[in-house]
Specification:
295 residues; alpha/beta; TIM Barrel; eight-stranded parallel β-barrel; two-stranded antiparallel sheet; 10 strands; 14% strand; globular
């Protein structure tokens, strides 16, 4: 125990300097507690305010889709270039090394396969398991306009409530039904509902008029990559989304189904974090693809 008689008198109080309280850098996130903010700051770069998430959770309803037949072979080489990994708990436990420092966004809803009504999802992961696996966020599909719309909303709100108790963010993922037009009016409705009901951030599709979607959503939006596009088109989509207010991308098929996945991921990073024009990013992709290390 310290000898109080020999302790130096404290004197560096700096009463003339007010204590600084830093505002959190992410849209709509300043009121969260420290743990929630810390996890978000691992997913999103505090420097750029953006993220490049790598999505490979498709197997939870599609099975071994093209490019994900062997996740250990196709995905692990991409991990160093991603800001965050979006995946299922099965793949996390069986494939991803526990030594990784990459933040995990874990799929927490599921149920039907592509052979059934996709909107009939339920919460498929307990928040206790998410905490046990040290994830930085959980992701839940929300089917606005789908047959099981209300059920999917309740799935999300239950995870939001559990996440608030644990300091784990919830990503609301908007899904578009077969009969619904994918336009700014619908996407704006879907993301706003997710945000209003507690989603910490939202994943949705890029559409014409996207600036109205981001303007009306009080939380960060990341765009889905969607179906495989030519590499230049995918880079243009990412650039347009960022320029219209998106806080990042969550790409899967446009990365792991590319001819040179590592090169494509590096090019996407340049667009998202450095605002590189898509044409320049495509040139970078071509150079990296043709370099000996990418062969």
């Amino acid at each position: 125990m310290a000898d109080t008689d020999n302790m130096k008198e404290a004197k560096n109080y700096y009463p003339e300097i007010p204590q600084r309280s830093e505002l959190f850098f992410l849209k709509g996130s300043n009121s969260y507690d420290w743990g929630m903010k810390n996890r978000l700051a691992r997913i999103f770069s505090p420097v750029s305010g953006k993220t490049v998430m790598l999505a490979f959770d498709h197997g939870y309803f599609q099975g071994p889709t093209t490019g994900l037949e062997r996740v250990d072979i196709s995905i692990l080489p991409l991990v160093p270039q991603a800001d965050a990994l979006m995946l299922t708990r099965g793949i996390l436990r069986t494939i991803i090394p526990a030594s990784t420092q990459k933040p995990i966004v874990m799929r927490a809803s599921g149920g039907p396969s592509i052979l059934k009504e996709l909107s009939n999802e339920h919460q498929a992961v307990d928040m206790e398991d998410a905490v046990r696996m040290n994830v930085c966020a959980v992701a839940v599909q929300v089917f606005i306009g789908g047959e099981y719309e209300t059920q999917s909303i309740v799935n999300m709100t239950r995870l939001v409530d559990a996440g608030m108790r644990c300091g784990i963010p919830t990503l609301g993922v908007t899904a578009v039904g077969r009969e619904i037009t994918r336009d700014a009016r619908y996407i704006g409705l879907a993301v706003r509902m997710c945000a209003e009901l507690g989603a910490t951030f939202v994943k949705t599709y890029f559409v014409p008029g996207f600036e109205t979607v981001t303007a009306a959503c009080p939380v960060p939006i990341v765009i889905a990559g969607g179906k495989k596009l030519p590499e230049l088109d995918a880079l243009k989509m990412a650039h347009d989304a960022i320029s219209q207010g998106a806080s990042g991308v969550d790409m899967g098929r446009n990365i792991f189904q590319a001819e040179a996945p590592v090169a494509m991921l590096q090019a996407v990073r340049k667009v998202v974090h450095e605002n590189m024009p898509p044409e320049h990013a495509f040139e970078l992709y071509q150079d990296l693809k043709n370099a000996p290390a990418m062969a």
